[in-house]
Amino acid sequence: MKINLSSSEKFRNRHISPSENDLQDMLKTIGVDSLETLIDETIPKNIRLKQPLQLPPPQSENSFLKTFKATVSKTKFSNLI
């Protein structure tokens, strides 16, 4: 499988996320009133982080793909690019 790293299509045009109505239908179907309630009922408090993750600033998709391509070119999977 070839990975197309030169695609100019924007990520947001390819990403499909649920609409607010879809989200509310999902929550109603599983019997909770919010995502916070769902998290409270499914993820034990003792394994949750106590503070937010310390993440670097986000990259644009184009910037990420350039970095990714440089990294992958150093591996045995460089033939996928």
From TrEMBL:
Alphabetic keyword roster: Oxidoreductase
Domain Glycine cleavage system P-protein N-terminal: 13-76
Molecular-function GO terms, alphabetical: glycine dehydrogenase (decarboxylating) activity
GO annotation, biological process: nucleoside metabolic process
EC assignment: 1.4.4.2
Pfam family, one: GDC-P
Domain of life: Bacteria
Protein name: Glycine dehydrogenase [decarboxylating] (Glycine cleavage system P protein)
